Structure to design on (220 residues):
């Protein structure tokens, strides 16, 4: 069993829909990282959060450290949001465990 | 500000040929450096990480090796490529994993 689990694995939605991607982890961590990988392969950091909620534009990330669960939400989704979204759990100064990613496809 | 670069961006190599992917980080010192591989349709697999010059930890047995000849330089190598080495390779760095990680642009390797 992977120590970081994401759901769903694949998600197709219509433009404008509210999107939720979930991440559960079994390792003891103090923060969680959300990343976005575009079709070309490059990976960019979206959020690093240790409690509560963070918002950046149409993206919202929440985390509950006690329940070991985090969610990434996209409001008013757009085709340009189509990408793979990855959650990552750093559990030592030098180690990071990645989820397998959620492939999101937004239809125009 | 810190930046990370890796090259080449794409590579097509015959089976049995050598490989060298290079990664450099600017704007920081003594970073943790990582090499990841992402096979088609799969998640990120950690290949090597380094916490300092000459210090390399290998996560999985494989046909690849890594070296860190300078503080901000990380090289992924192979003496003889296999078909199964094809994939997308990403270099990354962090100060401390808990503070986040930044990735290079990635290198697409196709072994033919």
């Amino acid at each position: 069993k992977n120590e970081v689990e994401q759901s769903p694995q694949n998600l197709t939605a219509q433009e404008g829909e509210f999107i939720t991607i979930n991440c559960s982890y079994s390792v003891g961590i103090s923060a969680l990282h959300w990343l976005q990988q575009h079709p070309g392969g490059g990976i960019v950091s979206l959020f690093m959060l240790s409690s509560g909620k963070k918002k950046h534009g149409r993206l919202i990330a929440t985390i509950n450290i006690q329940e070991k669960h985090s969610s990434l939400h996209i409001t008013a989704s757009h085709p340009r949001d189509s990408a793979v979204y990855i959650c990552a759990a750093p559990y030592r100064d030098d180690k990071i465990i990645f989820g397998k990613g959620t492939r999101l496809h937004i239809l125009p | 500000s810190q930046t990370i670069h890796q090259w080449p961006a794409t590579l097509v190599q015959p089976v049995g040929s050598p490989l060298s992917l290079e990664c450099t980080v600017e704007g920081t010192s003594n970073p943790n450096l990582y090499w990841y591989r992402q096979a088609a349709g799969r998640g990120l697999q950690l290949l090597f990480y380094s916490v300092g010059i000459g210090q390399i930890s290998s996560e999985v047995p494989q046909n690849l090796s890594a070296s860190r000849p300078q503080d901000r330089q990380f090289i992924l190598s192979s003496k003889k490529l296999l078909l199964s080495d094809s994939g997308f390779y990403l270099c990354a760095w962090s100060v401390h994993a808990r503070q986040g990680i930044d990735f290079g642009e990635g290198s697409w390797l196709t072994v033919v």
